Amino acid sequence: MIKKEMIAMLLAGGQGSRLGVLTSKVAKPAVAFGGKYRIIDFPLSNCINSGVDTVGVLTQYQPLRLNSHIGIGIPWDLDRNIGGVTVLPPYEKSTNSEWYTGTANAIYQNLEYMESYNPEYVLILSGDHIYKMDYEVMLDFHKANNAEVTIAVMPVPMEEASRFGIMITDEDKKIVDFEEKPANPRSNLASMGIYIFSWKTLREALIKMAEQPALDFGKHVIPYCREKGAPMYAYEFTGYWKDVGTLSSYWEANMELIDIVPEFNLYEEYWKIYTKSEIQPPQYIAADSVVERSIIGEGTDIYGEVYNSVIGCGVTIGKGTVVRDSIIMNQTQIGDGCELNKAIIAENATIGNNVKLGVGEEADNDTAPHIYNQGIVTIGEKSVVPNGISIGKNSVVFGVTTAADYEDSHLASGKTLIKAGEE
Fold first, then answer.
1. Tens digit of each residue's pLDDT (9 = 90 or more) over 122-159
2. Residues 6 or more apart in contact with residue 254 via CB below 8 angstroms
3. Torsions phi, psi of 230, nearest 5?
């Protein structure tokens, strides 16, 4: 029988609705990040850099791009005969077809997969955070304390603590209590949603709690382990960690990559971030173009000016176009004479000539102000913006638009233009 010391289960089914149109056609972990990567590359690279060579990736919402990106795991050196990476979508059982209803339900539905490796420990990860972490150090901490459950935690400012699951620990970091999003937090150690379970403990908890609707780690599995008296410890992580679940945090995390001294460095030799790379020609920067403090993906042609931006692969930026503080994803074409300020443009979009994005005064978005804010203008994937259009701040465009969709060639700040069929 195969025996693995620790296997990882990576939850990548999230819809990521707070990313707005960026995730209308693609799961959040498959969203492009940092020019050439996708968000899921970070936890996958952490696994291989930490010596964890068996990873089950649990997909659900819009899994197509995620599945083709992961493939058989070659870029992360996870194409193994034994172990490696396995994509685990929900599947029909003989009695009924069942979607994953909660984080722990997804793990429960894959008990057989885990049993086939008979691991001593199971690492539970989520597929939508940007960070570098050596899971082996966390496992050593788990073993040293004879823990049955170890939860990675991060100190957060006390005023933000009510947004998280909070751990209350004694001086040895043993968890004595925890509260889910408490109104008056008693500690600032926030759960990062990264768990190491001793396999027997996890298996028993999942089977015992299986009937709970929307079986969840924070609500069901961890309370069950605690009531049973399983020793639980908090592993404190102090490195860079970013939940890129909102458009503004996604924009910020991309911008932090191009800081003069980036807090999160993509270029470290000893902790590489791996990704599936489409073979593309090198980037081309024309003679009269300007590029300052930006990341430029391969196969990108720049004829205009780019400042403080993250540009993906296979992008074209036309002559006389000025791009500032923006994120432009793979294969997007931007015409001549454009002006882009604080824009997020998804993959395969086409922006005509003389288009202005992010102009004028800010106004609250009229359909989803909780998503489209901070002055960012968002263009969904495969969208088309015709020549000569200007679009304000906090606005969103999705779909193939024509001049007739804009009044006087303008979309005011805070407006939403989503063409039928793109919802």
1. 999 988 889 999 999 999 999 999 999 999 999 988 88
2. 33, 34, 310, 327
3. -70, 135
